[in-house]
Amino acid sequence: MKPMHELGVRVPTKRSLVIRNIKEVTKEQREHALRETEYSMFSFPADMLVLDFLSDSGTSTMTDLQWSSLFHGDEAYGRNKGYYVLLDAIRDTFERGNNPKKNINLILSGETNIEKLMDELYLASYENGFVNGGIHQLTRPNAFLVPQGRCAEYLLFSTIAPLLRKKYQEAELYIPNNGHFDTTEANISANGINPVNIFSNDLFEDFPPDQMDIRNPFKGNMETQELKSFIQEKNPDNIPLIYLTLTNNTAAGQPVSLNNIKKVNQIARKFDIPLFFDACRFAENAIFIKNFEEGYQSKTITTIIQEMFSYADGFTISFKKDGLANIGGGLFFRDKGVFHRKFSINGDIGIKLKEKQILTFGNDSYGGLSGRDIIALAVGLYEIIKEPYLNERIHQVREFARKLANNGIPVVLPAGGHAVYLNMNKFFGGSEMKIDDFGGVGLTVELIRHYGIRAAELGPFAFEWDNKTPEERKGILNFVRFAVPRNVYDSSHIDYAVAAITELYKNRDQIPKVKVSRGAKLRLRHFQSGLQPIYK
Length: 536
What we know:
The chain is α/β, with parallel strands linked by helices. Among the domains are: about 10-50 and about 385-395 and about 410-535, Aspartate Aminotransferase, domain 1; about 150-320, 3-Layer(aba) Sandwich (Aspartate Aminotransferase, domain 2), CATH 3.40.640. Helices cover about 40% and strands about 10% of the residues. The longest helix has 20 residues, at about 150-170. It is globular and about 70 Å long.
């Protein structure tokens, strides 16, 4: 008998034991709700949707191991046991490769040997990595728990900005990225620093749908020659950080190759600039490297992640992404690394960050999270690096994109790790829709109105085209994103979405232009401003 892979059939990787029924909602009821919520995607009641692709951030399904771990949640205000477990799970995930200690099992198994718990978990001393332990996390703190990714970005940039201003006075400061996401860009800008996108030049090159299982050009890469020229033009002193987003959410969720990470690291080292990752989807990025980058097919996911982060000086992360957990985020930097050295001239930067963390988000051992969330997050770090899950995750997104492409929909190919992205410039190509008519927003309005499907415009509306200079507009792409939450939808949901998108594409001349009716100047306005579609 032939094995399943030779028959073109995938072996199932999971079983669903709990369901949530979808409510029957009429088109008229959705139209009424759209009007009452100012046509805002973020304000439309989720319970009235058929499918919700607005975000995969915290919307994914947790595994049975994560749910069961909630009973081990410790709500102690100071140094709950989950805090120690999570910090050690982060060491396992980002530093130890194929040699994890899995000290989490001491808690999950109910270990009662106090000497063992003290020696291996509660009082264990660690230094020189992303997560100091014992006395070193007190005197040189470098790990900071917060509620979500944007909190980590706020903590980082609002802390370093005054230090930079004190040193550089009125100098223009820049942070280059392969693709700043919306909250990253907003937090950088809010602190008087200029975010700059340096995308891969091949992002919009055609790619055949039937090649997605065979090769990947890593369109999420940063153009390193452009980065080097940019640093030389602006002066290395005026660039406090270099950022890499893994996977590149702004650039259609495309992965970043390890070769590109190495090259960016070399440039950062040459100019003595700290290299940070926006690491929200590090595990998805790792499976792309394993499957498509030469020399990594025989490597484990854990060793690939270890190598990826060996080139970073620090990272911010939303633990809500990558299917990790429903809430959580963090900021981590390498002990005694470039960032620590450059920002600790007038006192330890970790102490300054911890002071602000406590002031804004709570005591350092919970960071605004419940003990239940912390332990579920720690378990999630081990769940999301499992290859069967990652391959199934990527496969579902790929099939979504393939079906759209086969229907002639202008989707960015190859598919990224967590979402499919429609190229709205091509979607409305040849029509009277201009970029500042916000046609992508019009599409999202019509998707809810007719079919109960929510998606996110990530283009000129979200990134404030009308509020930016011609130079700043060069960093704005024009996408509508369908983010697929982990383990929530099956092929029937994907087929429903494909049919809806295809029907709207056929009738795209009826999709309305949209104007911002309230809050056009607000930061991150797509989360809260009012909109008005203009129907012909």
